[in-house]
Each structure stands twice: as C-alpha cells, then as structure tokens.
Amino acid sequence: MADLYEKVMDVAKRRGFLWPSFEIYGGSAGFYDYGPLGTGMKRRLESFWRRIYCIEEGFHEIETTLIGIESVFDASGHLKCFTDPIVVCKKCGEAFRADHLLDGVRDISIPEIDKLVKSSGVVCPACGGELGDVEEYNLMFSTHIGPGSKRRGYLRPETAQGIFTNFERLLRFYGGKLPFGIVQIGKAFRNEISPRQGVIRLREFTQAELELFVHPNDKKHPNFDRFSSKRIPLLPAPNQIKGEDAVEMKLKDAVENGIIAHEVLGYHIALCWDFLIRAGLDPKKLRFRQHLPEEMAHYAADCWDAEALTERFGWIELVGIADRTDYDIKAHALKSGKELKVFCEYKKPKKKTIVDVRVDMGKLGPLFKEESSKVADAIKKLPKEELEKDKIKVEVDGKTFEVDGGVVEVVQREIEVKGEKVTPHVVEPSFGIDRIMYTLLEHSYYEDFVEGEIRKVLKLRPKLAPIPIAVLPLMSKPELIDPAKKIVHEIRKSGFMCEYDERGFIGKRYRRFDEIGTPYCITTDYQTLEDDTVTIRDRDTMRQVRVPMKEINKVVHNLILETWNFEKMRERYINI
RNA sequence: GCGGCUGUAGUCCAGUGGCAGGACACAGGCCCCCCAAGCCUGUAACCCGGGUUCGAAUCCCGGCAGCCGCACCA
User: Fold this and answer.
1) Which candidate in A39, A227, A241, A531 could, as Cys together with A34 as Cys, close a disulfide (CB 3.0–4.6 Å)?
2) Which residue range forms the structural domain that includes residue A570?
3) Which segments of A409-541 does DSSP mark as H helices, in order?
4) A297 touches strand B (CB under 7 A)
C-alpha cells in the first residue's frame, strides 16, 4: 500500500515538481532537480520568505560566493570538525577512524596522525593487516582554484560564512550600529556519506539564512510584544528527556521562565512559526524542539528546531534557530587578524578613574642603562601600595632592583568613556528550503472521493501555487474559446501566471488543475455570450461564483495575493 | 559504507531463454451546456556495463538507483 510519501512524490514527479537529477544516466543519490512547477513554487516560497524577512523585518539580502577559500573554513572550524581522519586496511579494505586507533589523540593534523599511526605500529584491528595512509574524509566538496592544486577551494556547507566574512563592510553599511541583520538565500553543499529520504537529505540544497548581530548584553527585542501572547507548541530539552510531547506555551511565559533563552530568540521562533503557517504548513504538525545539551554545538547558547510531522519520516527539522554567540566572529577575527568588533556608545558616558604611573626616566636611565625600560615596565605593574613606599623593590629577570620612591609619580585622573568595543552575538534562523517544499506538498496533499473516483488535490496557498489561475472554455467551441483567450491575455498582462486549457471534458480539466494546486479556475460558458460574465471555481470547495468579465483582473489580483478569500467572493458575487 | 528486497512506456503492473503486452496518463480528432466514466487514431519502456548462449528483459558477475534495517548525520 502506497504511503503518503509515495503519493506525494508520484504527483511531484509526474506533474513536474521534483525530478531525480541525471536520470538518463541512472541518477545519483542526494541530487534532485526542480521541474517547471516545482521551480515556480520554490520561487514563490522564496519570495514570500523575502517578503517577511527583507521587507517586513527590514533585513537586507546579500549574495556571496558558493566557493570559499581554505582560510574561511579553517577559521569556521569546518576543515577540522567537518573532517574525519580515515585509514584503510591494505589487506581487508576495512576503513577506520585513524585517531581512534591511537590513545589520547585529539585535534592534531592529518600528517601528524599519519606519522603516529606509522611509528606506533598499529595494525588493522579487524585482520591484523598493514594500514594505508591516513586520509581525511571531509563532508565539504573540495575543488581547486586556478591551475595546479596549490589553492584549495570548498563549496560552502552553509551560506552563513559568506555573511561573517563580510562583517566589516556590513557593519559600515548599517552605520556601525547594533543590532543589524543580513539574509542570504542560496545553495549549500554537503557530501553526505549516504543520503536517503528523497529531498529530505540532499548533497546540494537551498538555505535561507538570517544572521542577526546583536549586543551580547542586550537580547531584548523591540517588537517582542507583537508575539508575546502567541501560543506555540514547544518541546524543551528537559521534557524530551522525560519523553513528553510538545506543549503549547505563551511565548512571553517561555521567555520569562527561561525556557527560551531570551527575547530575540523567542521573537524569531514566533516569526518562523508565522512564516511556516502562512506558507501553508499544518499547525497541528509543527513544533519547536530545543536541542539537547549533547546535540547542541559547543558554541551555541540555545538552539531550537522548527520540526514538521511527516508520515514516513516522523518529525523532521525544517529550520534551526540558534544563538551562535560570538563564536564565528571571534574565530574570523583571530584567523584574519582584523578587529571584528562594534563600538557601542553608552547611553550616558561613564566616568572612570584611571591611575597613571609615571617613572622619571631621566633618573632611571643612567642608573640601570639598557635594563631601565624593563625595570620601568615592571614598576608600572606594581600594586598601588608598593608604589607609595619610600624604597621600591622590583624583580626583573631574576635580578632585584631598588629605586627611590621619588622617581615614581602616581597620577589619578577622571576621564569620560563614551562606549566600548564589543564582539556581537549572532542569532541565526536557518531555513532548509527543500525540506519546507516537500513538507508543504505533503501537508497540502488531500484526497477525497467524488462519485466513486479519487480526487487528488494539492491545497497550496494561492500565493505559492505555481499555476495560480487557469482559464477553461466550457467546451472547445470558437465562441467560448475567444473570450477565454482574451481573459488569459488580460491576466498575463497584469503579471500573473495563467494557464489555458480546452482539452476534453470540463470535469477532467478541473481535476488536472486540482492535482497541481491551482486554486481558481475561470470558465467561459454560453451565459458569457449573453451578459459578459464568467464563473470562478474554488479548488477547495468546488463551488462557483459568477463574475463580470471587466472585474476579472481585480478579482484575480485579490484572490492570488490572498487579500480576498472565496467566502468574500460568495458574498460579493452571484453564487451558483 | 554494510546486510536484505527491488528495478519493464509518464504512472502502475504482466511477461522468467525465442516477435515486449495491458490499464491509466499523454498527443491529435470527434463528442461534450460545469466536476476525471463515450468513440477513433497516435506517441511511448526492458536501469547501466560485462559475461554465458545460435539467441538474454529473462541466467551469471559488477556498477548505479530506490525502499527497509545498521552505521553516519559539526
């Protein structure tokens, strides 16, 4: 018996949403192409995401390279942490984690492990045979930049690094102030060992990520009130350990009780929920699960995954929302030698007393000659009480120097400090677009029985439907075809994808459009010839209203952009 | 990566050493006054590579892909 995954993928493949890549050559696991309808729907999903994150939230979008140079992933930790050292037995061909064959080996380079493996005389644990060279298996796809093999490049395993490496310019773009956010939508690549589960685990996939840079000591959100009383199903780590299910919680309570670490994270959990629901996911099949301590990356302060319930795969991760703290920015600062910090002005300048220790070098110089500057430095580091003594003793390089209290002058003064430089923390919602696409298809898939026949429907939201409108003459007669084609032309001119179809019976055509999620079909009939009206049929209720042709553009516009629903149409126009 | 099962038109299935078939879908036409059901015609497939054989979709070996389990999944 076909499960829901099979039914959804059947429609997806047959009607042009998703196709396995390179099919004529037998395909390759972990790669999928989007067909015409899938591409249309994905574009609409991405543009809806931009609508929320770029327009409504005001975060600008950038586009950075898919290929990164070695330094980037050296700094980010992907080179080291995304790699397993592997050694293969020359005799039996078995592969082992090389560092696990050695005692107490951690965080050292591949050549060093190789040396240790060879010098320690470790043999194959399975057959006792001789081991080959230690090689790395890294989940990043690597390539070479330019001719020769000296300059290594990698396909990015996440879009985030392109944002971090542009931090200085982005900070300047935003006027040097926190908080600010930048988004990126694009491909990322992971050379998975054995991808399965269709588009759930791909080697090449699309991410939509926001990197929100915030002050480490201010994780309040100015618009928190917008969602504070929203109820969201949450599954905190302690509840998971006890084997409990998600519970609906007011966002405000979750943050106040410390279940969610802070307001910014809470706001973005709610915003993510809002996005996914408005995109058309089933609210009953959606929850936010907190990472367990052991699955959380070591740098993350808190992390929540938006998970959707699918029939075959159970709960799958669609979005990860993490507080990455200052890990990435600090790592790139260290590696690049740049000071990746933000100057944050205090609300009020702070008065600060500083103690200036001045040493009279005129006297010290002749006394200690070439050692005098070292002595002076040592004196400056002494505690205040020592400096007030008549004779000051200080030790430098194992020698004790004694100077008169008179050569040292301690000056206290008050200065105004306007602000401080801080390394921002990063809050990162990271969306897996392909997984959202699949889940939308599954959550939208619906079957009912009409007169003994299965009616397959994709209940996609009008704004995401790849073909949002179709025009169908009731019969393929010239007098009905002419006005139908005129309407198609009008709708296309106003900027909406519109399909025309005159094949076979009207009922069959409705079914074809139901299956690809077209929410509305316009039909011309004989009454059209009498009074210039057409019918609009609603996919989900199969009901119709009759609308004057001259209002079609307005109606289509409102229906597709979801400013009107079909209920409103039934109030406004003639129900049939 | 390891083990099990599977691979035939777009889809689902039959064919198990001797001309590759059906249903649905699709295309063209007829028909059709609102929900896949009528008629005619047409397009369309043996996963890839090697071997055995006079002859392989069928038997054997290898690869690839899919499903299930294990491993992997910062």
Assistant:
1) A39
2) 456-575
3) 433-444, 478-493, 506-515, 526-531
4) yes
